[in-house]
Amino acid sequence: MSALLTVTCAVPAAGAVLTAALPAGSTEARRSTTKAVALGVSAVTLVLAAVVATRFDPHGARYQLTESYSWIRSFGITFSLGVDGIGAVLALLTAVLVPVVMLASWHDADPAPVAPDGTFENRRRTQGFFALILAVEAMVIVSFYATDVFLFYVFFEAMLIPMYFLIGGFGDRAGGPEAARQRSYAAVKFLLYNLLGGLVMLAAVIGLYVIAQDQGLGTFDLQTLTSAIADGKLQLTGIAEKALFLGFFFAFAVKAPLWPLHTWLPNAMGEATAGTAVLITAVVDKVGTFAMLRFCLGLFPDASKTFAPAILVLSVIGIIYGALLAVGQKDIKRLVAYASISHFGFIIMGIFALTSQGQSGATLYMVNHGISTAAWMLVAGFLISRRGSRLIADYGGVQKVAPVLAGTFLVGGLATLSLPGLAPFVSEFLVLVGTFTRYPAIGIVATFGIVLAALYALLLYQRTMTGPVKAEVSTMPDLKVRELAVVAPLVALTILLGVYPKPLTDLVNPSVNATLSQVHETDPAPAHPVAATSGGEQK
To answer: How far apart are CA 389 and CA 147, in angstroms?
Structure first.
């Protein structure tokens, strides 16, 4: 039995402990050592996650590189890990984004002097900040690899703690006491919403175990449970299955987030640093949509089909609602947050359209949204740090003084509106096609989200980057070498996956097909099948 998955999860966890334990100090040398150690650990994790993805055989078993260690034997709980194509891709996305976030946040946690004698506000800020990022990475990767329902639940909830401190303790330090209160409010709201979802899920996890134990399956092992459900050895009655499905789905919909459970996201992203905002929307929130595929559809196939139409309605409301509110935003970070709510509507719609195109597109969307939104938000963070304001009205003419910054900001915006040739276009197209084949009305309404995306993305660029140069931005520097190192790989991936998504689709399609077979669904037949004459011409 290989321990590759355990090592991949353990490296960032150990790195978090090591980073937190490094000697504190106010000197730049000590802070640089801390950052270098954390960045090195994230680089090793990236290599390991890449090895996992390359060793996964799309034509092999559903779960590969499996590991299982006894944990709480009396309740059948194990530390079981296994990777399918979807989990491998999302874990790799996480491993790619974390070092990028670290580079982008290089000075975000530096302690500031608070007295003329050079006294610093908190000499452990740097260690704490980078240790928390590594802790989040470890917990998210475990969630993508976990094949034990209880193990997944533990890390699904545990990742809230480091995220709470990242939002509340390391937000923008400008603005004085009022800004501190807003950060605290955003962090508490994030924690309470997600804890509520987790508690509902815990009740459903316990309920699933009790029902399984009554039928002779006292286990939390996902593969055992899904096989037993498929073979009829574990039978969930209609009411019980629906209640358990709603318990799991509620927690995932909060974390995703799905309208109307989304209200914590604009506060959290608005008050966090740009790097933390990327962790929220591009990494942590993806655990919610991933879990809908793995647990909701795998464990409760009949309930998934029953509730699919209602979930699709909520998804399309979220698409239009998020896009409309993004159009009206005056705050750059909150605009990106509402745009993400709209994009998550597309992802969830693709999942519950229950077609191969929809689910393949939804999985690609998780990856592509993570990359494009990271690029957009991080460049926005560089912009905000230069001007010291999140308000769109405080900018104008930036492209004349910082053309590279403006150009990369434009690429991020164009990717967000799903311009053909950039990565999100492929996934959004597949989601819409997959939805339209089964639910034409939902697919048509959702298409208006694309129009609104073009509106908010281009208006943001126009208002900040074009027009007369405002005095406050006339001396704004362009992107520096470190910042270019952050943005360049994200832009390259956005273009590469836009013109050649095949490596990702080859990995995820077998897992998508296995998921569809679990819910006993096939793609709808074309409404107007093509018939050919003996001469090969269409009738």
So the answer is: 44
Residue-wise pLDDT for 476-535, tens only, equals 888 899 999 999 999 999 999 999 988 888 888 888 888 887 776 676 766 655 544 444
pTM of the model: 0.89
Work out whether the CA dihedral 283, 289, 292, 293 comes out positive or negative.
negative
**Residue 231 CB-half CA count within 13 A:** 7
Two structure tokens written together for 405 = 């910054």
The set of residues, in sequence order, having a beta carbon less than 8 Å from that of 290 and lying 6+ positions away, is 86, 87, 90, 143, 144, 366
Tell me, letter by letter, the H, E, C secondary structure of 417-444.
Answer: CCCCCCHHHHHHHHHHHHHHHHCHHHHH
Closest-CA residue to 182 (of 68, 303, 272, 79): 272
Report the percentage of the chain scoring pLDDT > 70: 92
Sign, CA dihedral 416-418-420-424, equals positive
Q: Which residues of 242-276 are buried (b: 16+ CB within 10 A; e: fewer)?
A: bbbbbbbbbbbbbbbbbbebbebbbbbbbbbbbbb
State how far the Cα of 84 lies from the Cα of 508, in Å rounded to an integer.
Answer: 8
Q: How does DSSP classify residue 137?
A: H
Residue 148 three-state SS: strand
Instruction: Count CB atoms within 10 A of the CB of residue 2.
Output: 12
Question: Are 419 and 290 spatial neighbours (Cβ–Cβ below 8 Å)?
Answer: no
| Model confidence pLDDT, tens digit, residues 466-476 | 888 888 888 88
| Residue among 246, 427, 234 at smallest CA distance from 347 | 427
Question: Would you put residue 115 in left (φ > 0), alpha (ψ -120 to 50) or beta?
Answer: beta
Question: Residue 477: how many CB atoms within 10 A of its CB?
Answer: 11
Task: Tell me what pLDDT residue 44 has.
Answer: 95
